[in-house]
Amino acid sequence: MKPNVPAQSPDEIFDVVDENDRVVGRATRAEVHRRRLLHRAVHIVVSDGRGNVVLQKRSLAKDTCPGLLSTSCAGHVDAGESYEQAARRELEEELGIPAADAPAPEFLFAMRPCRETGWEFLRVYRLDRAGPLTPNPAEIDALLAFPPAEIDAMTEKSPELFSESFLRVWKKLRAAPAGEFPRN
After folding, report:
1. Contact at 8 Å (CB) between 56 and 66?
2. DSSP state of 66
3. Which among 90, 127, 81 has a CA at the least distance from the CA of 108?
4. Range list of H helices, 68-114
């Protein structure tokens, strides 16, 4: 984990993609978000080994959804980076899990861009991690673990506590034919 790294930089460079997720150019984070250009992101849902799902409370310094609950780990895919590379990088940057110390996260599904996802093509992964997590304070205010049924109840009763992208990811995750999450 990189200490004292800001929550985000408006100068980060992302690949801009077309409606088929093919790279058509590059732009800064600020421009991509301002112009609502299609781009890429990853979400990783971490299970704590006790049947709970770890959620992050996003840092108040984040430019989108500050202070809201979201997936365990999430981030943009940098220009020239694959979704898989981004997932491993984000696990290290946000949760302190060095790529060498963890198995590759398991790909679950992809989602098309929409307003709720911030015009991002999403790839969603899962990782079972019984070991310690070290949240990056520039990115995450807190990590909280809940049984999936409790998250279901919370999203129904108080959806305003969650990022819109999380609500879409969680709904699809819970509807997946693979069954109950997490698998223990």
Report:
1. no
2. T
3. 127
4. 83-95
> Which residues, 6+ apart, have CB-to-CB distance to 184 below 8 Å?
47, 49, 51
Q: Give yes or no for a cis peptide into 105 (omega within 30° of 0).
A: no
Provide the token pair at 11. 């100068």
Neighbours of 10 (CB within 10 A): 13
Question: Residues 95, 169, 45, CA angle at the centre, nearest 5°?
Answer: 25
Question: Which residue carries 């998250």 as its tokens?
Answer: 151
Full-prediction pTM beyond 0.85? Answer: yes
Round to whole Å and give the CA distance between 166 and 11: 25
What is the spatial distance between Cα 18 and Cα 164, in angstroms, rounded to a whole number? 22
pLDDT single digits (tens) 67-122: 999 999 999 999 999 999 999 999 999 999 987 877 789 999 999 999 999 999 99
Answer whether 58's CB lies under 8 Å from 140's CB: yes
Contact assessment for residue 80 and residue 13, using Cβ atoms and an 8 Å cutoff: no
- Among 160, 128, 112, 119, CA closest to 46: 128
Which residue has tokens 């200490």? 3
* Rounded distance between C-alpha atoms, residue 174 and residue 183, angstroms: 12
**Tokens 């799902």 appear where?**
53
